[in-house]
Amino acid sequence: MSLDELRSLCNRHARPDQRTPIEDVLISKTDHSTPPAPAMSGAILAVIAQGSKRIALGDRVYEYGAGQYLIASVDMPVTGEFLQASPDLPALGVGLLLRPAAIAELLLQAGPGDLPAAPGGTPSGLAVSDAPAELLDAVVRLLRLIERPRDIAVLAPLIKREILWRVLTGEQSAPVRQLGLADSSLTHVARVIHWIRDHYNEPFRVEDLAQLAGMSVSAFYRNFQGVTATSPLQFQKQIRLQQARLLLAARPGDVTGVGRTVGYDSPSQFSREYHRQFGAPPSQDASRLRDPEPALP
C-alpha cells in the first residue's frame, strides 16, 4: 500500500534538517509529542504518513493525521503540536514547497472544465483533506527517487507537476489555484502579508495596506481575515513576538532592547503580550530557551 511505503521511505530518509536531495521536498520525523509551538507555516503541501498534528491559525484549529494532507497557501504565523509521536512510532511527513510559477504554468495548460468550479470568496490560508490514492502514489514515486539520484533531475519535476495537478483537481483546488493567479484576492493578501513580515517593527495604517492590496478598506479587511483568521494588527503582533523569541535566545539579558527592536515602545506591554503568547515572561522564557531541561530517557 502507498501509505505503508510512504512511512518506510520517510523513516529511511529523514534528516535532522528535513532536507532531501530533491529540490523543494522536505521529510520530517519527530519521535515525541510536542507542546504547542509558534512557527511560520510557509507555502507548502504537507502529507502525513504516520502520527498526527494540530495547527492553530488565529481562532481556527486544524488537525490532520496519517493519509491526510494540509495546504498552507500563504506563509503565516501558526501554532503547531504533534499529538501522536514516540520513538517506536515517530510522526512522519512529507512537505512540498508550493511555487506560484509552477502552479500558474499548470493553470495555463488546463483545458475548459478540467478544474473544479471555483467557490466564491477568498479561501482560508490553511486547509486539510484526505489524500486520494493517486496523490499518495505520486508522493511515494517522488521519494523513491532519493534512492535513484541519477533520475532526480529528469523525473522529479514531472512528478512534482503531477502532485500539483492532483491537488488542483481535488478538494483543495481553490487555495492552490489562487496561489497561481497573479490577480487573485489571495495573491493580493499575500503581498500585504509579505510587507508586514518585512516591516513587522513599523507602525502602519490599515488604509495603506488596503491600497497596497488594491482593495477598499472593507474588502481588504474581509479578505485578510478570511485568509489569516486574524486582523492585520494581530498578525503583526504574532510576527513581532515570534521574532522577539528568536532574538531573546541570543540576547537573554536584553529584554527591553529586544522589545524595542521588534516595535514595542512599552516594556510592560511587551512583557504582557509575550507572556500571553508563550506562557512565560520574556526573561524566564529566555532562560528556558538557553538552558532547556534535559530530555527524559
Architecture overview:
The chain has a five-stranded antiparallel β-sheet with strand order 1-8-3-6-9. It has a four-stranded antiparallel β-sheet with strand order 2-7-4-5. It has helices at residues 2-13, 100-109, 133-144, 149-168, 173-179, 185-198, 206-213, 217-228, 232-250, 255-261, 267-278, 282-290; strands at 25-30, 37-40, 44-50, 52-57, 60-65, 68-72, 77-82, 91-97, 126-130. The longest helix has 20 residues, at 149-168. The protein has twelve helices and nine strands. With 297 residues, the protein is α+β, with helices and mostly antiparallel strands. It is globular, with a radius of gyration of 20 Å. The chain folds into two domains: 2-178, Jelly Rolls, CATH 2.60.120.280; 234-290, Orthogonal Bundle (Arc Repressor Mutant, subunit A), CATH 1.10.10.60. Strand 4 (52-57) and strand 5 form a beta hairpin. Residues 258-297 are annotated as: Disordered. One of its GO terms (molecular function) is sequence-specific DNA binding.
State the name of the first-level CATH class of the largest domain.
Answer: Mainly Beta
Q: Quick one: CATH superfamily of the largest domain? A: Regulatory protein AraC
CATH architecture of the largest domain: Sandwich
Treating each run of at least 4 consecutive H or I residues as one helix, how many helices? 12
The largest β sheet comes out as: 5 strands, antiparallel
| Model regions low in confidence, pLDDT < 50 over at least 5 residues | 292-297
Overall residue-averaged pLDDT value? 89
Principal-axes shape call = globular
| N- and C-termini, Cα separation | 34 Å
Which percent band covers the strand fraction?
15-25%
Strand arrangement across the biggest beta sheet: 1-8-3-6-9
- Estimate the helix proportion, in percent: 40-55%
Summed up, the domain count is 2
In CATH, the topology of the largest domain is named Jelly Rolls
Query: Tally of extended strands?
Result: 9
Structural class call reads alpha+beta
Q: Cα-atom Rg, whole angstroms?
A: 20 Å
Query: What is the ordering of alpha helices and beta strands?
Result: HEEEEEEEEHEHHHHHHHHHH
GO molecular function: DNA-binding transcription factor activity; sequence-specific DNA binding
Region (Disordered): 258-297
Domain HTH araC/xylS-type: 190-288
Keywords: Transcription, Transcription regulation
